[in-house]
Fold each of these.
Amino acid sequence: MKKLDKLILKAFAGPFLLTLAVVEFILLTQYMLKYLDDLVGKDLGAEVLVQLLFYFAVLLLPIALPLAVLLSSLMTFGTLGEHHELTAIKTSGISLTRILRPVMITSVSLALFAFWFNNTIVPKANLKAFSLLWDVRQQKLALDIRPGVFYSGIPGYTIKVNDKLGEEGDVLMGIMIYDHTQGTGNMRVILADSGRMFTRFGGQYLGLELFRGQSYVEQPDSRSRSGATFIRQAFNRNMITFSLKSFDLNRTKTELFAENKMMKNIPQLVAFIDSLQKRLRTERSQVPHLVAPYYAYLRFDTVGQAQNRRAELVQVPDTRLPVLNAGVLEQATNRARNLKSFAGSTGERLANLAKESGNYRIEIYRKYVQSTAILLMFLIGAPLGAIIKKGGLGVPILVSILFFIVYYILSIMGEKYGREGVMPVSFGMWMSTLALLPFGLFFLYQARNDSGLLDWDLRRLLPAWLRWPFRGYKKTL
């Protein structure tokens, strides 16, 4: 490795690691805010939250890499240009493409790593992350008894308190408890003036110690409703223990989520698409046979017996056409209505199969597009940094955000159009790359010719035999 390569790689490594960490943190924060309502108030514990953060960070790494490469390339070559180091290197006879080579090789390596990561690690992380998120969503809210509100989070009980005292809110005043564990409605009620709430046996149970209260139990008579007995019992102290097992996080088997397209690698996606296409071809080939019975007609022979036959094109003289009666018209109307319903449901089912196949193809293209985006962002960032000659965190961040937003919007539009069948899936997924590739080539062309960002010579863009009409013409914007 040449000293020049070491110099450039050293200048690139610091900004790349810094920007990658910052971009990953910003994307992770935005992603976690999306599921904030599913996490708050459930007392999940640090272990579950750390697992979710780790899995989501893994999922966002392929998205953060292109932006980090774009920003770090701009900062690296912008700083070299600002300090006139690029000028010194060029005066020694080294071309710009040779200067860009170490970072280009690094970008190619990152693109290959991103593709492997997308195809191998991301499906497994998706499986772990979204299966855990499903369990978190099914998890009940943590015990939250509020004054004046009936709380039914504990299975079999409904609790209402008038007030909560103490620093931790563990002292309750005016307690009313409905016991529904027997399945007899509101036949069992407990009232108490005050009480104390605490956890028992390592937090697995909730203890509620009641003071100065009464319990009411109504025992109905199965033979006579008026003969029901009513039991009232007073107490000075009563201990009730509730099980908090329903508040535990129950883990679902991850195998139940493995059939989702996000949890598959490319060979699995291709195999599933082949099965969908085979099923689609089979159902399409069966449509004529399923439609044929709807075109049968009733023909009465000489003895008046009705025969159900297939529709045939028969030329009959006008004088021999029978007069249609109400029964024949009604039957024809019913068959037409049934045919319309069959055609609608069949068409919708076939369209859903084709759309599902397109969704799986989108997942395949996404793995390639996200990896190629690293090379695209390098092609834009490195020459542009050499042109604008501005380092630091000012201009590079603004330019990077602008290009990344354009790329992100075009990616979303292309994916949406491909998913809805407006354009082919392949073109929709590559639309953002094809739209920004000319900018990268233009910036590279300008940087190689030591031109400004908005300075261009029209003659250089034309073949030699077409340059004579533009002799002496150079336009500067």
Amino acid sequence: MHAVEVNFDGLVGPTHNYAGLSYGNVASLSHASSHSNPREAVLQGLEKMKAMHELGLEQGIFAPHARPDLNVLKRLGFTGSDRQIIEKAFKADPILLRACYSASAMWTANAATVSPSADTLDGKVHFTAANLNNKFHRSLEPTTTTALLKAMFNNDHYFSHHCHLPDQGFFGDEGAANHNRLCDSHADTGLEVFVFGASSFNNALPKPSKFPARQTLEASQAVARLHQLKPHSQLFIQQNPVVIDQGVFHNDVIAVANGNVLLCHEQAFLNQAHALAEIKKAYTGEKNLHIIEVPTQKVSITDAVSSYLFNSQLITLADGSMLLVAPQECQRNSAVHQYIQELILSDNPIQHVRFFDLRQSMQNGGGPACLRLRVALNANELNAVNPAVRFSHDKYDQLVNWANTHYRDSLTSNDFADPQLLTESYQALDELTSLLDLGSVYPFQQQ
């Protein structure tokens, strides 16, 4: 049966801000305390969705999370009315309050790991929300992520949902940002390549020394078991610890895969020659596997991290060629831009590039690929998806009007002391659940 890959892009939440909460993420740290523009951020994301839809691609919408997270503030000892909780938290620990306001769920590449039905023994599409326990502000996400996924993919005949892994570092799981799938077509059985940063139990494997390894081998193996992956559909390789210490906090900052193409930096993986040989050996597709290694001499790790070249989306167009969806930062970086021009003129499936302005996301450490969760679906599975979360021109117009109505055009650190921001945020999301037919997925709607 024919299948397509649907990109479910995360809508940027109304409390989008730069708090510098993500240690190991160079862009996040370098823009800490800058003024943010939530309205511009969500509209930039919607423009990218619209552009992908107009290319003839299936596009989906992933709702943001409710922020601030009052429940966690209550668990941490703040009491009283909503207003009093906000006021007390801002006075006692403003950094904690900003973490509870974080809109980091916008990066849906970290929302979950998804295995298509072609790869699984039971023939279902499997979802496991990431526990994201390496960072406090992201560890607040998995329960709501699971609820959103169940509201989007709400047919048990086709979709199987799993609880996120245990909430501690031994099973640190950062979702699809450390997961690649190689295949001849989206309908074919593929090779799911899980990339881990370190092992919790095997001390013989190296670890980064400066920044944390967010994905563990044990987490990746657990997800593969939960998803009932066919034995020949799974492979585990280690990310290069040296580049993690240079700000490559996820595999998708140093490598991107699509179809029968893997685009990676020559320093992406530990013992790279051996790792790539393993991938070639494990790949069972009939098409030629294209592994494109980007030389350090042409693109340094520093340039890769600052431009987010590898956090570009790589998508297949109707004619079979591939398009690199890159942030404008790639265009502005002379070394990266020159390499991209060489790439699209070379003998490989990547023949086109488009640059997008995603500055609001980029400054917080997330490029085009961070903003989307890839889900390969056959025709029956696609028809079983909640139709209200599938992108259309009418849905675009509705969401633009919704964002212009509810979102502020500036947020500063002092704005988080304003309880009205909570009211505005919750009102916006309450309306959004109706637009996307999600039901009562947020805690404030259930209380």
